Amino acid sequence: MGRVDNLALTQERRVRAAAARRMAMLREESTRLRDEAVWLRNEVTRLHAEIDRQRDYIAAQAFAEQEERQEAKRQIQEVTAALRAMTAGRDRMEEAWRMSAAEHQRLLRSTTWRLTAPLRWAMGHVPPPVRRLLKRG
């Protein structure tokens, strides 16, 4: 065994040492990748849970918004109905006022009213104590 055999043996040892270092490095890389895969699976699970939570929150918000819309619609209908009732009441009062005004005008134009005008004027100028005595009688 000579020098060539020693060189071959040394070379083989170097190759084996390099292969062993490469294997150790690959094992470390494999472990790191496995750990990263586990972390990624956990992260995906967490993100799915977050998505589900957000979806539930959005659904709850949509439901609450729908209820608020319905309540607002109901209130609008109530206010509209009240406004219609008030408008109808106002219209009835206006009509009653018109009728009263027309009746008042008929009274003012009546013969009786015109004939009693001087008496009303005279009574308007009588002092209140005398007027009270006249009413008692």
Structural overview:
- By secondary structure, this protein is mainly α.
- It has one domain.
- It contains three helices and no strands.
- The longest helix has 107 residues.
- The model has no long low-confidence stretch (mean pLDDT 93).
How many strand units? 0
Q: Percentage of helical residues?
A: over 70%
The biggest beta sheet is recorded as: none
By DSSP (H or I, 4+ residues per run), the number of helices equals 3
Quick structural overview:
This protein is mainly α. It is built from three helices and no strands.
Task: State the main characteristics.
137 residues; mainly alpha; 3 helices; 0% strand
Secondary-structure map with pairings?
Blueprint (H helix, E strand, L loop, with lengths): L2 H107 L1 H14 L3 H9 L1
